[in-house]
Prior knowledge:
- By secondary structure, the chain is an alpha+beta fold.
- It has three domains: 2-121, DNA Polymerase III, subunit A, domain 2 (DNA Polymerase III, Chain A, domain 2); 134-242, Roll (DNA Polymerase III, Chain A, domain 2), CATH 3.10.150.10; 255-373, Proliferating Cell Nuclear Antigen.
- It has helices at residues 7-18, 78-87, 138-148, 204-213, 267-281, 332-340; strands at residues 2-6, 32-37, 41-47, 51-58, 67-70, 72-77, 92-97, 102-107, 110-115, 134-136, 163-169, 172-178, 182-189, 198-203, 221-225, 229-234, 237-242, 261-266, 289-294, 299-306, 310-315, 320-323, 326-330, 346-351, 358-362, 369-373.
- The strands form four sheets. The chain has a nine-stranded antiparallel beta sheet with strand order 14-11-12-13-26-25-24-18-22. The protein has an eight-stranded antiparallel beta sheet with strand order 6-2-3-4-17-16-15-10. Strands 5-1-7-8-9 form a five-stranded antiparallel beta sheet.
- Strand 20 (299-306) and strand 21 (310-315) form a beta hairpin.
- The longest helix has 15 residues, at 267-281.
- It comes from Lacticaseibacillus brantae DSM 23927.
- Residues 1-126 form the DNA polymerase III beta sliding clamp N-terminal domain.
Amino acid sequence: MKFTITRSTFIKTLNDVSRAISSKTTIPILTGLKLVLTDDSLVLTGSDADISIEARIDANSETNDLQVESTGAIVLPARFFSEIVKRLPEAKMTVEVRDNLQTVITSGASEFTINGLDADQYPRLPEISAPNPLVFDPAILKQLISQTVIAVSNQESRPMLTGVHLTISGNTLVAVATDSHRLAQRVLELQTPTNQDYDVIIPGKSLIELSRTMDDDLDQVEIRIAENQVLFIAGNTAFYSRLLEGNYPDTTRLIPTSSTTTIEFSAPAFLAAIQRASLLSHESRNNVVRLNINVADQKATIYGNSPDVGNVEEELQFSNLQGDDLEISFNPDYMKDALQSFGQSTIEVAFTAPLRPFTLVPSEDKTHFIQLITPVRTY
């Protein structure tokens, strides 16, 4: 096996695939990078058994400048190989695998020799076919991921909550994540209705890595769902993830259907105020800020306090306030995550009681995106 390629092209693909490679895997060969060279392409594969990424470099593309001399396959130690490739002196590099699996990497006057492994020993990726795959706009899919993964749990004691629950029926997709302290739900209307219903839980870590591999110039992302795997096809990259097993809790009953107090904020302005209030709350053991709403005086005030450092008080700017007076405390980090997911929108925050969860929704579309936060008891 021997090929020559432009290093910048190879490094970009290598970086994408390396996201799936872990040094802590229990399967030694998975610490390696698999390369398969045919007459028309070079395919790189990385996997940690949970996530697998396969990326293809087309030999027929002039921009790649991939020149194939002899075909073959090899698994190379990913960490060493990546470091070598990134430090080579010239714009082009040549990789040659010899009969004893020794691999020679040359660029200009530099030459490295590293030991490879038999590619036949590398686990095979599942074949996932779908006669009617789901097709998404990459920008919308990235937005859906960023708006929901913030609420997945980091606690492995409840594995289901470490994923995003996806239900698809007809032309509606609902994505929900919760860690039992907060919840994020996004609803999408599909352009083409599906003829099959889906109910799956995708690990949050997988979706974060998927989002990082998707280029802005992609036309579409295709999704294929199997019994215990999901496959995302984005351009020349195939991203596999295992699905989490079990039944996701029913989250519909957690979202309040009525409110006693509503207030509208500019999301960026409210976010800036929360960031200022949390400067002191982070120095306190309980990390809580307090919001006081006085409807009669049309005032909303936020307080942050640390017994050791001091306190902060700020009167908030808002566009609409109605309902009952309220005093409520919450974790400012949860609020910051929620507000960042709304971008430049105007949001409506709806409260029912000081110790009941409250919701944040975009003022112009209150049905397709909702964030929910559970308040903190301070007495």
